[in-house]
Amino acid sequence: MKSFGVHLFFLLFLAAIASVTVQAFTGTYGINYGRIANNILSPDDVVTLLRAAKIKNVRIYDFDHSVLKAFSGTGLELVVGLPNENLRDVSANADHAMNWVKDNVLAYLPDTNIRGIAIGNEVLGSNDEFSGFLLGAVKNVYNALDKLKLSHLVQITTAHSQAVFAASFPPSSCVFKDNVVQYMKPLLEFFSQIGSPFCLNAYPFLAYMSNKDQIDINYALFLPTKGADDPKTKLHYDNLLDAQIDAAYAALEDAGYGKMEVIVTETGWASHGDENEAAATANNARTYNYNLRKRLAKMKGTPLRPKSVLKVYVFAIFNENLKPGPTSERNFGLFKPDGSISYDIGFHGFKSSSADSSLLSLKEIRASGWSGSYSIILTMATVLLLVL
């Protein structure tokens, strides 16, 4: 009788999680938490900053345990990263993938609300060293999640730069590069099977910097402009970001995956740059990010996918003083290293006080709906794994 009861409970549990469609991004406005710096706030203070700004969707580029611990019990929804340099090992060995998931995901659930794992970043199109390992790493991590009964709770993705596209204007002409297709199509096929989106790092700033003679800066900054028309679809675009996203949809459709959702995993505008980066100003950065927030608040899609509400992770929380490359690379932060605002788009700077730094207790989170269900389900999963 006892074994029958455990079996029935297990079947009911599986039915409960199978009915949930996993989504790593449950809002519309998220932020990237890059940490290539030696002068930024501690993870605990970052949690205070994010909660004061009411930003709940957060992406990190690794699996730093101090960050995972700081996010414990906060209700913030986190996507952790498997860095490019780990792809070879995780792709080659399923046991290594399982150990990675156990050590860096399962060990922190349910207290840390890990909703997704980003496998690599901008691997295809610009990083041939790791291209051959991406799909294997994706499959091994997913299979590890599946064996741990977590595949319906933690979503697998990978983010692509625009280097995967052969052309992006007009949007309807966009296709994947020939040297990318051999890796992209099997990846898209697997993602379509498990319900993962296409994640795009889209930067009107970079597009404008490369084509200043052809792109109106107002078009890049969501300011009034005559816009652009797509001669094939007859659609009108009043901003560059929408055009970049619809270009991705066109490439997906050309590849046979037109129903896949596109999520913007990085976008932003530099507030300072080198002499040849004249568009990198605080005023332009403020304009872009302020107008982006307004655009996302409308809860609408793009001209090509008007019913698909756009989801965007802004890059980034901080200016990162140790990033290589041009000066602009170190100045994409909405906040300065001490947590004060880089420019005003409606957020307040970091304030260290007991009121601001108080965290939601797990009891409060469990009383708040889905986060509670998520925590309870994961607790049950862990217990069942131990019992069975």
UniProtKB/TrEMBL annotation:
- List the keywords (alphabetical): Glycosidase, Hydrolase, Signal
UniProt entry tagged with the keyword Transferase: no
Substrates-to-products reaction catalysed:
Hydrolysis of (1->3)-beta-D-glucosidic linkages in (1->3)-beta-D-glucans
Q: What is its EC number?
A: 3.2.1.39
Domain of life per record:
Eukaryota
Q: Where is the signal peptide?
A: 1-24
Instruction: Please name the Pfam families in this protein's record.
Output: Glyco_hydro_17
Q: Does the keyword Signal apply?
A: yes
Q: What class of enzyme is it?
A: hydrolase
* Family per similarity comment: Belongs to the glycosyl hydrolase 17 family.
Protein name per Swiss-Prot or TrEMBL: glucan endo-1,3-beta-D-glucosidase
